[in-house]
Design a protein that fits this description.
Elements: H1 5-18, E1 25-29, E2 41-47, E3 65-71, E4 74-80, H2 91-94, H3 96-104, E5 108-111, H4 136-139, H5 166-175
Parallel strand pairs: 1-4, 1-5
Antiparallel strand pairs: 2-3, 3-4
Length: 182
Amino acid sequence: SPPSFEACSEAARWLRAQFREPPRVALVCGSGLGALAEELTEAKTIDYRDIPHFPRSTVQGHAGRLVVGRLGSAPCAVLQGRFHLYEGHAPSQVVIPVRTMALLGVHTLVLTNAAGSLRPELGPGHLLVIRDHIDLAGLAGRSPLVGPNDDRFGPRFPSMTDAYDPALRRLALALAPKELRA
């Protein structure tokens, strides 16, 4: 069954009590990117297993920790690892951290991952910025939208127009080292 609003709210309340200032920006790290948390100052680290209702990360290279601190002047959360359907998690479990971050007050979410490319010129280490995607898992019935909708999380079918914010995409490309841009 989908994560209840109450369960995600409980996780958000528990997390809010752990930090002086809740994050406004969250970065979900895919494989090999967890070290980005080392850039935070005034950081506090919490294992996912200690956060109410959070799933357990089982992927090698995903530490399964939430690090909250400051990146420059911005209160920021770095999620070291995420959850995958192939680990046996239901789509409704995979969305718990993102929904919890939203309830904490996060307004900007950056998702990362390690991926391969069919283009030989895009080898390991290149940075790509996604403009759009096709939800093939959703076509197979593996969607976090399945089940009763709770409007407190937002509409059942959110607009996917500019789901990947154009201004943030431009900023990411402008900040990326030129030799790593595709």
